[in-house]
Amino acid sequence: MMNRTGITIYENTRVYVPCPASHATGGTELLHQFVHALRNLGIDAWIYYYRIKDGVDPIHQQFRKYVSEYATDIVDAPENILVVPETRTEYLFKYEHLRKVIWWLSVDFFYDSADVDFVSTWKKRLGITPRFDIKHPEKLKVDLHLVQSQYAADHLEKHGIHNYHYLSDYLNAAFLDQPEIDEQPWNRVLYNPKKGFEFTQTLIRESPELEWFALTNLTPEQVADVCRKSKVYIDFGHHPGKDRFPREAAICGCCIITGRRGAAAFEEDIPIPQQYKFSDADDQVPAIIRQIKHCMDDFETVQHDFDHYRSVIRGQEAAFIQDIKDIFQQQHSPVQQ
Questions:
Q1: Range of the domain at 38
Q2: Which domain of life is it from (predicted)?
């Protein structure tokens, strides 16, 4: 059961969200969607870009629909709030007075010390760059944790952290606002080559009769188009959070087959029937290939096994807005000084 902890928004509160400049990923899009939603609710929220390059617009063109301006500094005052993803907790140590929130967009990436360059990576590994210590959370006062997945909530509970609230995400409109297509989808298996590729290579090698297609170097619109014309999406990655690719493929009509690692192990995060979830073990390869072929051969029937998942996905934007309203509780008086 998710906790329902919130945080107060005063009349003079500003919410700051650090984000890498000019960088478009699912995670950075979510940070922009978050600020956009807060602003639509009348809350003074700002993206704070870091690693801004000379002559390059820090607002990626894909995100101009969410924000048109950004903060150039963060005011360290007790009425203000700093929301950082779990990979950037070092920002929490820079400020003494403002309220601090960690948004767990993943679990696994929190433990990854790799950074954008050699120096930054080694500063993290040597402990020079301060980071939130999940084994000793009392060392840094965090006013609230947000969790994108049940996987993250479970992880916090195991470390004795209970002051959290669920705040997930929703898909790009390219996937939700789709015209009907008349043509039958192809007998094609889609996969993300950046996630679980070693095991996926085994599946590809053991099923040369199947057509496989890697979802890479594509815009959201192109991913949506490919998914709508395919029957199956597989994902045997680590699922560090509630990943977008399975949802994007499902909402476009694909049958979904996943592993059981990370968030995929939780029904709340990937609510598909258990017969479509497999361990990424060699002895499971024949069964996985049989299930892929079953999805293709009986697609008209099998695709309805994912109707509940699609219904959940369609409701995620409304749930996202409602969760923000529940978490960020606006109080018009008194104003904290």
A1: 7-170+317-330
A2: Bacteria
